[in-house]
Amino acid sequence: MQVLSARPPWRDTFISLRVRNYRRFAAGNLLANTAVWMQRIAMDWLVLQLSGSVAAVGITVFMQFTPMLVFGLYGGVIADRYLKQRLLIVTQSCAAGLAALLAVLTLTGTTQVWHVYVISFALGLVTVVDNPARQVFVNELVGPHYLRNAISLNSSIFQLGGLIGPAVGGILITAVGGGWSFAINSVACLVVVAALCSLRRSELHASPAAPRAKGQLVEGMRYVRGKPVIFWTVVMVAIIAVFAFNMPVFLAAFANNVFDIGAQGYGLFNALVAAGALVGALASTRRTSIRLSMVVGTAAALGIVQALAGFAPTEFTFGALLVGIGLANLLFVTAANSLVQMSSNVQIRGRVISLYILVLLGGQAIGGPLMGWVVETVGPHVAMMISGLVPAAAAVVIALLIARSASLRLKFSLRGRRPSVAIVNRAGKAGARL
């Protein structure tokens, strides 16, 4: 795994944008991510208006992520076998058509809850192929030298869209209704298709295609199980995804039932999370290394901040903690994503990434209705506290298991001017930096 020995100069914070192909891809992604966030806000609020149930919002999340839970590993096999550029052109064209259909249903006033469920499921099927292909395609755009910077920059683009999209989406819902958010997203997907078609193939760092063979799914799973750095990262992602990555459910409940601030407030809450996440994504470009300890530590921090947000006494305090949640969220996601990609062989990376995405999105498919039920059973405050405490406790347990397997322990020293804490093995020597 490539590791930087010193922080890069500030002028190199966005160094991957110097690559023409990636620059075009990133520009299309920025527009598309902004529109996708607008669509997500509009879909969640539309379901809440049609059904009057927070649990129904959780079911929408479930329908969108269930295909990844069921077929996710096959998406990785497809990404390893075929040209990523062509796959992304097909998936983005399908996403444009589904968004256009939802726009027509909404603008004509004929939308029903089951329509949203079906379209969410279809979008989930598109995601099964789109996500692993997109993740691996970044490596083909920039090459291994700029990969980590491009991963962090992708997260920044995603969160910048998340900062702008919810705010604009909330305004559109209030002013003209959510149907126009779906129409805008359809157009944005077509812009991404145009950007993909304009890339110079001669400048791509093409990955070797995996040949057709039996047992490729099992091979990918064995590869993950045999590499502790990837395995424990995937386990931590799964736990976080089920309990902590269901913010639409929590934010809809707090906006509608706790603070009574409507669609604009819901959009503002999402924008605050995205603002913190944008700061986290930019900070992640300054990292000199990525280690397993960083993944576990940021997961614990995310859990603690999210638990505190459950009992925020005012809207201002809640909003400030949402910024902290977004910051910890992105530091965790970029660390986990980078560690998994840069620790895996390029020929099997699609299958490894598909397993990573499976637990990330599949966990949300399970967690959406689960946490929606918890919200309606014990209330938003207690539910959000649970969503933070469980991942924090899991991070502590995983850290202890890793330390035990590597025969590591903490060593405290009060000598000198400053107390020190170090990780050492049982013999007292410095331990491996996990």
Automatic annotation (TrEMBL):
Keywords: Cell membrane, Membrane, Transmembrane, Transmembrane helix, Transport. Residues 1-406 form the Major facilitator superfamily (MFS) profile domain. One of its GO terms (molecular function) is transmembrane transporter activity. It comes from the Bacteria. It is found in: Cell membrane. Gene3D superfamilies: MFS general substrate transporter like domains. The chain crosses the membrane at residues 21-42, 54-75, 87-107, 113-129, 150-173, 179-199, 229-254, 266-285, 292-312, 318-340, 352-375, 381-403. The keyword Ion transport does not apply. This is MFS transporter. It comes from Leifsonia poae.
